[in-house]
Amino acid sequence: MHIKPLLLSMLAAVALPALADNEKIITALSPFGVSNMQISDSPIAGLKTVLSDQGIFYASEDGQYFLQGSLVQITPEGPVDLSNVVLIDKLNAMADNMIIYPAKEEKYVVNVFTDITCPYCIRLHEHMAEYNERGITVRYLAFPRAGAESKVADQMEAIWLAEDKQAALNEAKSKSGKSLLKPVKSKIVAEQFNIGVQFGVAGTPAIVLSNGTLIEGYRQPNELLSILESTIKAK
What we know:
Elements (H helix, E strand, L loop, with lengths): L2 H27 L8 E4 L5 E6 L2 E6 L5 E2 L4 E4 L2 E4 L3 H8 L6 E3 L6 E7 L4 H8 L1 H6 L2 E7 L8 H10 L4 H10 L13 H12 L6 E3 L5 E3 L4 H11 L4
Parallel strand pairs: 8-9
Antiparallel strand pairs: 1-2, 2-3, 3-4, 5-6, 7-9, 8-10, 10-11
């Protein structure tokens, strides 16, 4: 008996229905402008997770039903939002292109989508030392509210490409978003903006915790620490 051909034929028999189901979902969602779909099983039987450029959706296997929103698991420790867990690895892979303000005695890491022209982003930045003193490392990602093709995006690109990124960002934040660097075109800001959209970021600042939880808006240092202590296990 030829084991290898038999095994391949068995795998194909299993894979084809899965591909067919995925095609039904793609066909159903494409007319609504949903693009670049990556489809995988969700924690709920019969429901698929759809990761797209427009965010995360959940769809029935036959493509007849879909929804968008938080997927929450009830655990002994309390409710856990699973919606953005699928994006965490993708976000962490961008760490080399983030502007990071590390805490000396790091307990928590937060990812902050920021805009250099956003007043509340500037307020958050003014308290950076206080976040760091509380053991919170802040990792900045660019999220120009005017979009990835805006003038602000080009200004932020120059900051993210600067030799001393912290100094360039500090200068822009201290001057209400006015950067002295020459605006440039590149891909870093667009990539960070796009993953912000996938996380559901609608404004800035937006804070993503290490478990994928999205917190919208400015949080004072003590307030953010309290949220982290009740949500994330300290290092």
